[in-house]
Design goal:
By secondary structure, this protein is an alpha+beta fold. The protein is 40% helix and 21% strand. The longest helix is centred in the N-terminal third of the chain and has 50 residues, at 39-88.
Length: 210
């Protein structure tokens, strides 16, 4: 069966569509056809490229928010711990107060809630290398899975206890941009302890990434 020429993976499709938009006018001239003969196709290709740009800008804003969240997490932890310490040092503090605030050491509800969570990754380029960030949310580690251009299935990339993780592998074809898709699981005692996280896509540009 003949292979479909239209790229299905984002990295290749972005390159293809940009070339299509850039060269359609010359192709139409060579075909001796009216200038806007393929206007619908060209407009559709440009619209998808524009949406890629909007998504990239939104991802940049999301990355900034994620960095701010990580910084706030440290400040919040310090402030809340100090507040709870003050409550616990209160004379004859009722147990029901600690249960109400879920700060009783025997309470299990926060753990039960976290167990239902799935990792939220933040994939971006950091210099020439993909950077995979996120929060552990009290779990022991995060298991990252990846599928990239030329691969049909996801495979386990790394198990990490500290993020960000840098995916330093070179592109399969150094002269060609490569799409990498990532998702992850939370681990507790080396056992998967969460649902599979959402898949995040990153475009790694062509070049020497070694």
């Amino acid at each position: 069966m003949a292979q479909d020429w239209y790229p299905s993976r984002e990295a290749e499709r972005r390159l293809f569509l940009q070339n299509f938009v850039d060269n359609m006018a010359d192709a139409t001239t060579l075909l001796k056809q009216p200038a806007n003969t393929y206007g619908v196709a060209t407009t559709a290709a440009q619209a998808e490229l524009d949406l890629f740009g909007l998504r990239d800008a939104a991802q940049k804003a999301l990355d900034t928010a994620q960095r701010n969240l990580i910084e706030q997490e440290l400040m919040t932890s310090a402030a809340v711990r100090a507040g709870v310490k003050q409550i616990k040092n209160t004379m004859n503090v009722p147990r029901e107060v600690l249960d109400l605030l879920e700060v009783n050491p025997t309470a299990s509800k926060p753990i039960d809630r976290v167990a239902a969570e799935a990792p939220v990754l933040k994939a971006k380029m950091d210099g020439i290398h993909p950077s995979i960030g996120g929060l552990k949310n009290g779990f022991d580690a995060i298991e990252i899975w990846c599928c990239r251009t030329g691969e049909k299935d996801f495979s386990r990339l790394a198990t990490v206890t500290h993020l960000p993780y840098f995916d330093n592998r070179p592109n399969g074809q150094p002269a060609v941009a490569e799409q990498r898709d990532y998702y992850a699981y939370y681990l507790r005692k080396n056992v998967v302890a969460s649902a599979q996280g959402a898949t995040y896509t990153l475009l790694v540009p062509a070049g020497d990434h070694a």
